[in-house]
Write a structure and sequence with these properties.
Elements lengths: L2 E5 L4 H13 L4 E6 L7 H6 L2 E3 L5 H4 L8 E4 L9 H12 L5 E5 L19 H4 L1 H17 L3 E6 L1 E3 L4 E6 L12 E3 H14 L5 E10 L1
Parallel strand pairs: 1-2, 1-4, 2-3, 4-5, 5-6, 6-10, 7-9
Antiparallel strand pairs: 8-10
Helix pairs in contact: 1-7
The chain binds NADP nicotinamide-adenine-dinucleotide phosphate (NAP).
Protein name: SDR family oxidoreductase
Organism: Candidatus Levilactobacillus faecigallinarum
Pfam families: NAD_binding_10
């Protein structure tokens, strides 16, 4: 049986992913890791095992990894630099058999989003250089672990109608504003395809709305 550990489960991005798992992958077991369970929807607090801790601390993650086969992490923010190292260290300590990790990173860390004057996306490199450096390290950290991974670098995650998907690898650095948006549910679907079908194997990629479905 597949068991997915969702880190950063209180985030809207992870919430869309959890909802997709519930509707489209009902045979998959779900475990949630959060700092503050009170921020979760009440039904999730009773439906799933909840693990509480700091994602930057490997020992906090160890109890959550029991029987886990897949990891989805939407842990974000400028104070989360150690979270990938902590996760990989916890996996190594527990010898958990993880088939794939999906990591939600930040659009703009390669200067790929042509964000003009707006104070986000590629401006992240100048506003938060330490955070950007940590995000740029992720592919090397995951590659060294030997675990299959996908890093998604979304632009602006939005609600709205689902679409097809446009993806770009890090060497493509001309993403215009028309490709900033990605629908939350479409994005959750891409994450599930990466996690369970090994799509986007060992890639870091941007994700944007494509043609209407
Ligand atoms: N929203 C967008 O348009 C967008 C665009 C590009 C990338 N992203 C990325 O997508 C991910 C999710 O973002 P979001 O906008 O949906 O929501 P968010 O509020 O930015 O999500 C951050 C998540 O990380 C958790 N977290 C932060 N530090 C933690 C720690 N030390 N230990 C445990 N958990 C910790 C937060 O928990 P708390 O609830 O306790 O704070 C929250 O669940 C982030 O990585 C973000 O950078 C989002």
């Amino acid at each position: 049986m597949k068991t997915v550990l969702v880190l950063g489960a209180t985030s809207p991005t992870a919430q869309a992913f959890i909802q997709l798992l519930q509707t489209d992958y009902p045979d998959t077991a779900i475990k949630l890791f959060v700092r503050n369970p009170a921020k979760l929807p009440a039904d999730q607090r009773t439906a799933f095992p909840i693990f509480t801790g700091d994602a930057n601390t490997a020992t906090d993650l160890i109890p959550a990894l029991d029987n886990v086969t897949h990891v989805y992490t939407a842990v974000g923010g400028t104070g989360t630099g150690n979270s990938v190292s902590a996760l990989l260290s916890a996996i190594q300590t527990t010898q958990a058999s993880i088939e794939h990790i999906v990591d939600i990173s930040a659009g703009g860390i390669y200067g790929e989003y042509q964000s003009g004057l707006r104070p986000y996306l590629s401006a992240v490199r100048f506003m938060y250089p330490g955070y950007t450096k940590e995000q740029l390290r992720k592919p090397d950290l995951y590659a060294a672990s030997g675990i299959a991974y996908t890093i998604f670098r979304p632009g602006l995650i939005q609600n709205g109608p689902e679409t097809q998907l446009i993806t770009h690898l890090p060497d493509y650095r001309k993403i215009g504003p028309a490709e900033f948006d990605i629908n939350r549910s479409t994005f959750a679907r891409a994450a599930a395809n990466a996690l369970f079908q090994d799509q986007y194997h060992n890639q870091s990629l941007s994700v944007s709305n494509g043609a209407p479905l």
